[in-house]
Amino acid sequence: MRQMGIKAHWVKPYIQTTIDSDFSQKLKNILNEEFNPTHPDAVWCSDITYIWTFEGFVYLTSVMDLYSRKIISWVLSETLEASHVVECVEKAKRVRNIEKPLIFHCDRGCQYVSEAFQKATKGMIHSYSKKAYPWDNACIESFHALLKREWINRFKIFNYAHAHKLIFEYIETFYNTVRIHSHCGYLSPNEYEEQYLKNIEENAVKIAS
């Protein structure tokens, strides 16, 4: 090859990020594409998406409340280690006051079947998408697609810090607070949850009177 002027190209080793073993048979799809829970903190869903920067990929983990489609926590990381998913789960638990066991839906990525994740979500009902079937987690997949189409893809992202700034701007100052959703009756996720709480209070007053 050297005499002929041919150079071999190094190919990056394949890194498996989903589980395909006997263990996978134990991962049940409890949610079963029922994407319309009746109240907040009934179902959370989570996923990881890749974001390109000039310094390499960074990875966004998000947790969504399926009732309002609100992103209740997110973590941007430079690796795909399970610890970052755990960090995102712990942030979600701190933000929300969970009174009853909720369903936590995700794909079969190695981060979501790790021992650390199982420990962080102890007491929750685990639900997993079918293998290679993203439609089972369509709502969080759709959010990540929106994030890129409406915002991220407009920019040449230099590094982790730049990506973090852009994601913060989209989620915290637009998506949760301003962007309307047909699912939410053309309210923002925050407004939809506020309306739910208002309805609960009004019903309580009616019952008391």
Please render the helix and strand layout as text.
Blueprint: E1 43-51, E2 58-65, E3 70-77, H1 82-95, E4 103-106, H2 115-120, E5 125-128, H3 138-150, H4 160-175, H5 189-208
Parallel strand pairs: 1-4, 4-5
Antiparallel strand pairs: 1-2, 2-3
State the gist of this model.
This protein has 209 residues and is an alpha/beta fold. 33% of the residues lie in helices and 16% in strands. Residues 4-16 have low confidence and may be disordered.
How would you describe this structure to a colleague?
This protein is an alpha/beta fold and 209 residues long. It has one domain (22-179): Nucleotidyltransferase, domain 5 (2-Layer Sandwich). It is built from five helices and five strands; from the N terminus they run βββαβαβααα. It has helices at 82-95, 115-120, 138-150, 160-175, 189-208, and strands at residues 43-51, 58-65, 70-77, 103-106, 125-128. The chain has a five-stranded mixed beta sheet with strand order 3-2-1-4-5. A hairpin with a 6-residue loop joins β1 (43-51) and β2. The longest helix has 20 residues, at 189-208. The chain is globular.
CATH homologous group name: Ribonuclease H-like superfamily/Ribonuclease H
Total number of distinct structural domains: 1
Count of runs of 4 or more consecutive helical residues: 5
Query: What is the helix fraction of residues, given as a range?
Result: 25-40%
* Topology as a string of helices (H) and strands (E): EEEHEHEHHH
Give the rounded overall mean pLDDT: 90
Structural class by secondary-structure content: alpha/beta
Q: DSSP strand (E) fraction?
A: 15-25%
Uncertain runs are: 4-16
Radius of gyration: 20 Å
CATH topology name: Nucleotidyltransferase, domain 5
Distance between the termini: 89 Å
What general outline do the C-alpha atoms trace?
globular
Number of strands: 5
**Sheet with most strands:** 5 strands, mixed
Write the CATH architecture name. 2-Layer Sandwich
Spatial strand arrangement across the major sheet = 3-2-1-4-5
Per CATH, the class reads Alpha Beta
